[in-house]
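Work Package 4 report. The design task specified in the project plan requires that, given a folded chain encoded as structure tokens, an amino acid be chosen for each position. We show below one input record used in the internal validation round.
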């Protein structure tokens, strides 16, 4: 198995996906390294989350699930 050659910072992923960085931070807080979410030290004051390509795919699925949950919350008749 090859090593991970690079990761994408959360701010870069937010731009790639056209999403709010703070919201992505909130919904990704429980992601694990096994899900492609790593913590990068030395970026910003305290570091930041970063994602592998697999992590971005996992994050996309979380976005879909979160949007569905919000839609049900705002429209309970669906």
């Amino acid at each position: 198995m090859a090593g991970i050659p690079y990761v994408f910072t959360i701010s870069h992923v937010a731009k790639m996906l056209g999403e709010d960085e703070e919201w992505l931070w909130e919904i990704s807080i429980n992601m694990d390294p096994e899900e492609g979410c790593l913590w990068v030290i030395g970026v910003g004051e305290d570091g930041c989350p970063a994602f592998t390509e697999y992590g971005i795919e996992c994050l996309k699925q979380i976005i879909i699930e979160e949007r569905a949950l919000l839609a049900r919350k705002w429209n309970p008749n669906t």
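Strands lie at 8-9, 37-40, 48-51. Validation will be extended to a larger panel in the next phase.
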